[in-house]
Amino acid sequence: MKLDILAFGAHPDDIELSCAGTLIKAVKAGKKVGIVDFTEGQLGTRGSAELRLKEANNAAKIIGASVRDNLGMNDGYFKNDDEHRIKLIQKIRQYQPDIVLANVPIDRHPDHGRASQMVTEACFYAGLVKIETSLDGQQQKAFRPRRLFYYMQHFSYDFSFVVDTSDVIEQKIEAIRAFKSQFHDPNSKEPETVLTNPHFLQHLKDRDSELGYAIGAKYGEGFLVQQKIFGVNNIFDIK
Questions:
Q1: What does the radius of gyration of the chain's CA atoms come to, in whole angstroms?
Q2: Measured between alpha carbons, how far is 152 from 162 in angstroms, rounded to an integer?
């Protein structure tokens, strides 16, 4: 299956909290999107890996993703080495996305930055014919995505561009709420975290509102670009 967008996340819910609106908007425009989680969130303070997987699949349905895979890497301990990088290359070659989305290079959680570097390298190496990979016994062809964008998580950046997500903000929040184990529950006996603050989702919505304001919209999601030069057919295509 060829995808238009493939979004990688170190943990289940990274995508929902950061760029779900962009994915939802793409689906509504007739594009095929997919999600690949590195880990099952085994080190998450609340819930369990099994529960997070169920929540991730529910969130994917709300987003409208064509596929959601989990690489089964060890949460907190996965490494940027050949063994792990090959798994990413296999997924890139399997789905041949035009656009790849990844964690930002520097963020509050150490896994995010490491995952970002791994995806950056995998996008390049996936295009090298002398790196051989196979899937289900079939040799894979070399493939390199056209663009790689990094989505915002905890830390704010001077973004390269902002996607207007005004018309899908409520669906994004619904996808985030699919991870019920991770957010505020007055009846929960589990430890408190940054995410369990009862105002967290409102803070998240306020952040998207501020990004939207920067482009004259109600809500938006910010992205970083490693390669700053874009090619356009017409100068008036730039908004």
A1: 18
A2: 10
Residue 14, SS3 per DSSP: helix
Determine the 3-state secondary structure of 228 from DSSP. coil
The pLDDT tens digits for 19-65 are: 999 999 999 999 999 999 999 877 676 667 788 889 999 999 999 99
Sheet bearing 220-225, strands edge to edge? 67-73, 33-39, 5-9, 99-103, 147-151, 220-225, 161-164
Which of 139, 151, 135, 60 minimizes the C-alpha distance to 100?
Answer: 151
CA gap 60, 237 in Å, rounded: 31
Q: What does the chain come to in residues?
A: 239
CA distance 22 to 24: 6
| Number of separate helices (H) and strands (E) present in the chain | 6, 9
Q: What does the domain layout of the chain look like in residue ranges?
A: 5-228
| Residue 65 CA, distance from chain mean position | 12
Residues of the chain with pLDDT under 50: none
- This prediction has a pTM of 0.92
CATH superfamily of 5-228: LmbE-like (3.40.50.10320)
Helices (H), the chain: 14-28, 49-63, 82-95, 110-125, 169-177, 200-214
